[in-house]
Amino acid sequence: MSSSSLRLLVTSVLLATVSVFDVVVAGPVANGALQERHHSHEMRSALPGSWFHTEEGEVHKLFRRQNLDAGGYPAVGSPAWTAAYPSGTPDNTKLPQAWVDKLNAAVAAGTIPNIPQTTVTNGGTVYPNGVQRDSPEVCSADDFVCRSPDDVWDAPNGTVAIGFDDGPLQPSGQLYDFLAANNQKATHFYIGINILGNPDLFNRAYATMGDDIAVHTWTHPYMTSLANIDVLAQLGYTMQIIHDSTGGRLPRYWRPPYGDIDNRVRAIAKQVFNMTAIIWNHDTGDWTGASPDKIKGEIQGWLNGPKSPGLIILEHELSASCVQGFMEAYPLFAQNGWTTTSTATLVSAPGSGPWQNAANNTGPVTGAAVGGVVPAIVTTSSSAPATTTNSTAAAAATSTPKKSRADQTSRPVAMTLAALSGFAALLLL
Ligand SMILES: [Zn+2]
């Protein structure tokens, strides 16, 4: 079955599933976990009274007003917090003026290439005639046709980057249990509307576990298909909700859905928000609904191979099978002599880290003060919607022409299921 057909099948199944509201809803958080969260949050609150940013890119100026001028950050999960963000695709006529001004200034300065938008088809994206996706001017990462030196593709030799896309979602809970039990830090490439729908899971990953948070856009679109202003909105709102929910931290990294990035999208992320894209060099295919055994087998094969470069593996916290596959493979990393580190921490320069405004989650901070406090945490476990359907994952598993990503010539970037998860969240919120 072609990838186009697969997408149509999964789309149909998902829409049918959503229409009958066959949705798994996150259960309440156990008291023990709640206490642990509050305890850890107190530890995190032991930061300076004011939060600081570096002057690099002056990105902090884009995120100051709405929070601090209004008297502080709304508590995560509170009605005021929820009301502060778009419930679906952002309205590009209502963006913060500072974002728009910085984009316009970058365009005027000639730092945003004028590459035509793609058209989304059932199998991916298509550029207008005459525009070559593999040319140096375009340099699309989709299909791995062009590998920009401005993106991160590989981990250091002998290391495995631990990271997960598309959360937070209901299956994230089991994953977080496992990560915590193994004292394993990870990077979560979060979808904005999934943060909005699952604040408890966000708090757990960030405040309780101390994991790294990165941007995976607001609603998981093909970014090259969007106008500049909509690229701006997708990145800006996801940074905003992370900023507001972490006491003012700004993520340094983002991952384009489907790996769909070109020099125009790349430049907007860098010039306006000073974010770097992390792609991947191996794909488990977990997004296809592959069985845990298959995921484990893929990983075992890579671990048996050369240790240069290190592995950045595409994995998801999207379904029970994704999570199970990772958990079953996890012991193999150490058994085969690899070290594991959270992706954003692993690929950061020495002295840097996953955030733009501090060396790491708890270390000393430098630069100009912008004030702010770590936001209070509100538990919303009784109302947090989750968006993954077991039947969707099962349906995808029956039809997966999964290709290995190791040769970087196949087309595994099309994370149909991942996109649909975001779409489902959009429909349900
Ligand atoms: Zn994704």
UniProtKB/TrEMBL annotation:
One of its GO terms (molecular function) is chitin deacetylase activity. GO terms for cellular component: plasma membrane; side of membrane. PROSITE patterns: NODB. Pfam families: Polysacc_deac_1. Keywords: Carbohydrate metabolism, Cell membrane, Cell wall biogenesis/degradation, Chitin degradation, Cobalt, Glycoprotein, GPI-anchor, Hydrolase, Lipoprotein, Membrane, Polysaccharide degradation, Signal. It is found in: Cell membrane. Residues 1-26 form the signal peptide. SUPFAM superfamilies: Glycoside hydrolase/deacetylase. Its main location: membrane. Residues 383-410 are annotated as: Disordered. InterPro entries: Glyco_hydro/deAcase_b/a-brl (IPR011330), NODB_dom (IPR002509), Polysacc_deacetylase_ArnD (IPR050248). Residues 383-400 have a biased composition (Low complexity). Its EC number is 3.5.1.41. Residues 158-341 form the NodB homology domain. Transmembrane segments: none annotated. It is a lipid-anchor; GPI-anchor. It catalyses: [(1->4)-N-acetyl-beta-D-glucosaminyl](n) + n H2O = chitosan + n acetate. This is chitin deacetylase. The lineage of its organism: Eukaryota, Fungi, Dikarya, Basidiomycota, Agaricomycotina.
